[in-house]
Amino acid sequence: MKAYTYIEKGKFALVEKPKPVLIEPTDAIVRVTMSSICSSDLHIKHGSVPRAVPGITVGHEMVGVVEEVGADVTKVKPGDRVTVNVETFCGECFFCKNGYVNNCTDPNGGWALGCRIDGGQTEYVRVPLANQGLNHIPDSVTDEQALFVGDVLATGFWAARISEITENDTVLIIGAGPTGICTLLCVMLKQPKRIIVCEKSEERRRFVQEYYPDVSLITPEECKEFVMNNSDHGGADRVLEVAGADDTLRLAWECARPNAIVTVVALYDKPQTLPLPDMYGKNLTFKTGGVDGCDCEEILHLIEEGKIDTTPLITHRFPLNKIEEAYRIFENKLERVIKVGIV
Ligand SMILES: [Zn+2]
Ligand SMILES: [Zn+2]
């Protein structure tokens, strides 16, 4: 089968590999029906993910059909349509039991697929700990509707959940890339009083304007003043920082009102400073971290009920043998791309 593979820093290539086989009784083999490219794949390509193992198939956002299961897999059976979770987790350890699956202490846990072991930009993938890592796609939900459940949408859902948003809140979201838009969709479910989205790219602002016209859109330059003038208590009640640019962490806490919650979802290239003297007396609560993809079943229900729709994000589709072209477009942000589906 063809597998898009991390060869060395700066180089991915479509190579021929044998079809994966079951190794552990908790494994499942999934035939990939659709996958996507994530900015984390680009981080691997650029050598900024030291854990990534050269030779692995990349890709960790995918849906498919279960082909084969190990003896201990009870949750799914061959023929089931499934989403694949970006996180591999045991479901048994202290962190898993508390829903912090990102911190699973199992040696195979964490972000494994498409990083430390073969991932999904291919035809078949071996999913370890399949009872935890796979979720049934309801019959009425298409592959395209379910594509982001295991990664960017799980991230947005988690970010909105931990931000403790109420209906009286003014919520500021910084960054409207794919994860920012997924975060926006999940924040919208909480029905806050106002949502303000700050995004520097005009193309992305236009995209949000077109699909979510009730949202206030602003540039980083006008952000602070706009938020101060359009919130009830001298700043946003909740700020979700999903941009990860050089100065967006500062922008996030500066736009927050005293006693606000600032949720940091972004992954930064460089260390960030938290100038505590400057924020003294603001009594902020910061929440940080990587996605806990433990709500996939609930997210799939919301999609089934028509409450979340991420399909507008899929702006491009390519067959697996054209994946080089898909990367070229995604990596260079050409043709107003948001996300690419690989079929
Ligand atoms: Zn990702
Ligand atoms: Zn665990």
Major sheet size, sense and barrel closure:
7 strands, mixed
Low-pLDDT windows of residues: none
Total of DSSP H or I helical runs spanning 4+ residues? 11
What are the distinct ligands in this entry? zinc ion
Termini separation: 14 Å
Characterization of this structure:
This protein is α/β, with parallel strands linked by helices. The chain has two domains: 2-151 and 292-342, Medium-chain alcohol dehydrogenases, catalytic domain (Quinone Oxidoreductase, Chain A, domain 1), CATH 3.90.180.10; 156-288, 3-Layer(aba) Sandwich (Rossmann fold), CATH 3.40.50. 25% of the residues lie in helices and 25% in strands. The protein contains eleven helices and 17 strands. The protein has helices spanning 39-45, 94-97, 130-133, 143-146, 152-162, 178-189, 202-211, 220-229, 248-254, 296-304, 323-331, and strands spanning 2-8, 11-16, 28-36, 61-69, 81-84, 87-88, 110-111, 124-127, 134-136, 170-174, 194-198, 216-218, 236-241, 256-264, 285-288, 314-318, 339-342. Strands 3, 4, 5, 8, 9, 16 and 17 form a seven-stranded mixed β-sheet that branches. Strands 12-11-10-13-14-15 form a six-stranded parallel β-sheet, sandwiched between helices. α5 (152-162) crosses α6 (178-189). The radius of gyration is 20 Å and the shape is globular. It starts with a strand and ends with a strand. The model has no long low-confidence stretch (mean pLDDT 96).
